[in-house]
Design goal:
The complex is a heterodimer of chains A (about 400) and B (about 80). Chain A is an alpha/beta fold. Chain A contains 17 helices and eight strands. The chains are: A alpha/beta (about 400), B alpha+beta (about 80).
């Protein structure tokens, strides 16, 4: 019997898969040049007269409209320009959700980028902000800080952190201005939670990114195909098909790129020299726009376990929604399976709220037919079995068919 | 300070090794990594700083210590340690 090592493939359609990675920042951003140039205009002072002023910019747009990649591309470009002019400018991109919406963890990450061994506890967020400015002063560094998924910070800590970050210069009269902010939001309605003065400071410069059209998605995909695939591996009709599907999913470029990558994987699996529309169809049923790998991978372990409990509960019942109580019981079983101590009711409720905000599940308060109020949970946009498979694969559990 | 005085202490050598490996650390972290108590580390750091082998930067309450890489003796010390290993 011949042993075939699946990792040693004789043929692949890919030239460089990493160019389709979620974290890859392409050298060119099709259909975002105008916004990129506007951003550069807004921060022109940072190159021409550093320390003279600071800037606050708000970037808004739906999922997959290029908010993160736009700011990251801008960060790379402006740092390169600053280096040429021997200006000590640093761009730091922090995802507030990964920092659990805590200003302290955000600042700790920023400080860690300047001093990797800076202690991670023992002081308040306000103290840490002062230390950060001291560090910037003593090392003559100018900082552009991007707060991605700002919603998390607003939901968790309200106005104060953003107020402190935007007004920190006011108590430093006469000193160089060092901290500029780029805030990234999905929906502007979250700003209503901020007090009027913080809101007005943030809303001065807004870049609103619209959903990509089918044609724009096609251009984006064509760029990535050139970088990631072998010549001729992705025919135009396949690209057209992916662009059309993604346009129907609300012009989501991230979805389009993930679909392209998965379709490439299916082409490899079938030893096909080309990525065909059939591979795209095969890939499309595996990707649910609301629940994608990156969103699930960023969840904490217990959020994943809770989601697994949701998947299992709906896999085995015909109800449209389940109560918090039932979910907690199933969650306890899942925790036992993974050797974890289950979290308490309040923490579970917080997880449900955060998963609901992410759009993975839907949580609503039910009054009818039950005594008192109870939170009901439903799963709308992804089959329970698919969700279970996805979570188990993220948790590194082998799935038996 | 004479060389035999600097290197007569195991604690000081441990601190130098930790700082050479990790770059920049605060006292608590040096203390954790060397297994010495806070006060001992503080005392040794003062001696090493007076000898010009270590420098510190202060951010609020936090002091971050690092080897003074511009010192020629430190450069030789780094070589010695790399050969020793």
């Amino acid at each position: 019997m011949v042993n075939v090592n699946p990792l040693k493939r004789a043929f692949t359609v890919f030239k460089d898969e990493s160019k389709l990675d979620i974290n890859y920042v392409p050298p060119r951003l099709p259909h975002r040049d105008k916004e990129l140039n506007f951003l550069k205009q807004l921060f022109k002072f940072a190159i021409e007269r550093p320390g003279y002023m600071t800037q606050r910019v708000l970037i808004t747009g739906k999922i997959g409209t290029g908010k993160t990649v736009l700011s990251q591309r801008f960060g790379i470009d402006i740092c390169a320009e600053a280096e040429k002019r021997k200006i000590n400018l640093k761009y730091v991109h922090v995802n507030c959700r990964e920092c659990k919406g805590s200003l302290f963890l955000i600042l700790s990450k920023v400080m860690g980028s300047l001093h990797p061994n800076f202690p991670k506890r023992g002081f308040s967020a306000e103290e840490l902000l002062e230390m950060l400015l001291e560090a910037l002063d003593s090392e003559n560094v100018y900082l552009i800080l991007t707060l991605d998924e700002l919603e998390s910070l607003i939901w968790k800590e309200g106005s104060d952190p953003i107020y402190n970050l935007t007004r920190v210069q006011e108590s430093r009269l006469g000193k160089p201005q060092r901290l500029s902010l780029i805030c990234i939001l999905r929906d502007e309605f979250v700003l209503a939670k901020l007090d009027a003065s913080t809101r007005s400071t943030l809303q001065r410069n807004i870049i609103r990114l619209k959903e990509y059209s089918k044609e724009q998605l096609f251009d984006i995909l064509a760029d990535r195909v050139e970088l990631a695939f072998k010549k001729g591996a992705v025919p135009q009709e396949t690209l057209d098909f992916i662009a059309e599907l993604s346009a129907m999913e609300g012009g989501d470029a991230r979805y389009a790129i993930e679909l392209l990558w998965r379709a490439g994987k299916y082409a490899d699996l079938h030893s096909s020299p080309q990525v065909l529309p059939e591979h795209v169809r095969e890939a499309a049923v595996r990707i649910y726009p609301t629940v994608r790998k990156d969103a699930l991978a960023n969840l904490s372990l217990h959020e994943k376990l809770l989601l697994l409990a949701v998947a299992r509960i709906f896999k085995n019942c015909d109800e449209a929604s389940v109560s918090m109580g039932d979910l907690e019981l199933e969650y306890a079983v899942v925790c036992e399976e993974f050797g974890e101590k289950p979290r308490g009711h309040t923490q579970i409720w917080k997880y449900v709220k955060s998963l609901s905000r992410l759009g993975v599940i839907k949580a609503f308060v039910s009054l009818a037919g039950t005594k008192g109020r109870t939170t009901m949970i439903s799963l709308h946009k992804i089959p329970a079995s698919e969700l279970e498979k996805e979570i188990l694969s993220i948790l590194g559990v082998k799935i038996e068919n | 300070m004479k060389i035999e005085e600097i290197f007569s202490s195991k604690g000081r050598i441990k601190i130098l090794l930790v700082l050479l490996k990790s770059g920049e650390l605060n006292i608590s972290e040096i203390s954790r990594r060397t297994g010495l108590n806070y006060a001992t580390v503080n005392r040794h750091l003062k001696i090493l700083e007076d000898a010009g082998l270590v420098v510190h930067r202060r951010f609020g309450r936090i002091r971050l210590y690092q080897i003074d890489k511009s010192d020629k003796r430190v450069q030789v010390l780094e070589k010695l340690i790399s050969v020793w290993k």
